[in-house]
Amino acid sequence: MTPRKIIIDTDPGQDDAVAILLALASPEEIDVLGITAVAGNVPLALTEKNARIVCELAGKPDTLVFAGCDAPMKRKLVTAEHVHGKTGLDGPQLSAPTMPLQDQHAVDFIIETLRTEPSGTVTLCPIGPLTNIAVAFERAPDIIARVQEIVLMGGAYFEVGNITPTAEFNIYVDPEAAKIVFGAGVPLVVMPLDVTHKALTTKPRIDAFRAMKTPVGDMVAAWTDFFERFDMEKYGSEGAPLHDPCTIAYLIAPHLFAGRHINVEIETESPLTLGMTVADWWRVTDRPANALFIKDIAAEGFFELLATRLARL
Ligand code: BDR
Ligand code: CA
Questions:
Q1: If residue 308 lies in a helix (H) or strand (E), which one and from where to where?
Q2: Cis link prior to 13 (omega < 30° from 0)?
Q3: Fewer Cβ in 10 A, N or C end of the chain?
Q4: Domain range holding 15?
Q5: Which of 16, 152, 153, 235 to mutate to test the pocket of ligand 1 (most atoms within 8 A of CB)?
Q6: Whose CA is closest to 105, among 175, 46, 44?
Q7: Ligand 1 center to residue 179 CA distance, Å?
Q8: What is the pLDDT of residue 227?
Q9: CATH number, domain at 137?
Q10: Is the model's pTM score more than 0.85?
């Protein structure tokens, strides 16, 4: 099988970090053309640095990392240090990365890659606010039809919201960007909170990471321990949701997931419900489907995949 070429657009974030590790550990299925950082969980200066830390941890310092947009298209940046800590990767102390940041802007890299790779062969995996992707689509509309698929983490229907009562963080931070991406007409797979809240880091699952007895296993266990405290308090759940790796796991093992092709629109006006993903789960409108909206995950299989793959690094 030829590995699928992807660009990971990200704002690490401990769960973003696990997604990157999973992708870098899976070269048979996934060819990471580049990692593009965006402002989100923490400001851009930290997300691009964190992306490089994660590549070095994976033993893949040759991975291309680009810095992108430092603020949403029309709004002030909202961050999530309350979940991820001051650095975005709080947990054990981490040394500054030595691998370089690429000079090219992330948006230019996305545009250039989509123009130079054969049409329909590059998948975008956004796991942060959608600013870089939307700016690339606005600046170079010719690339839109060349995207194979977008597999993103964002939104919610049954779980409604995590940053406001009605909005999920990635969509809320840049709703105008999300509107552009959801309206672009690209085949779209969405991992909303409805599914990621079923991918919980229970104690045995964290123990499995620690049992690897590798720097990656220890780090992933420590990271998940760190951000668990917040979600467990908030939801009273037995662990924290490992949101972002669901996108990469879907590319490797789509059979672990189930959802529906439905219409999803983004609220950009109402102050009360800004950033809401208005998902027509029950198909009560005749608005055309624009997304495969995932609801279920075989969580045991997902965590087994993670443990097996991360153990390779
Ligand atoms: C999303 O928000 C971020 O805090 C996580 O990294 C994830 O991408 C979950 O709402
Ligand atoms: Ca993220």
A1: helix 299-310
A2: yes
A3: N
A4: 4-310
A5: 153
A6: 44
A7: 18
A8: 76
A9: 3.90.245.10
A10: yes
Q: What is the pLDDT of residue 232?
A: 72
CB atoms within 10 A of CB 102: 17
Residue 269 · residue 22 · CB < 8 Å: no
Q: Tell me the three state secondary structure of residue 30.
A: strand
Pairwise CA distance, residues 41 & 163, whole Å: 11
b/e code 166-204 from CB counts within 10 Å (16+ = b): bbbbbbbbbbbbbbbbbebebebbbbbbbbbbbbbbbee
Number of domains in the chain: 1
Residues carrying an active site annotation: 243
Residue whose CA lies nearest to ligand 1 atom number 10:
169
Cβ count within 10 A of residue 32: 23
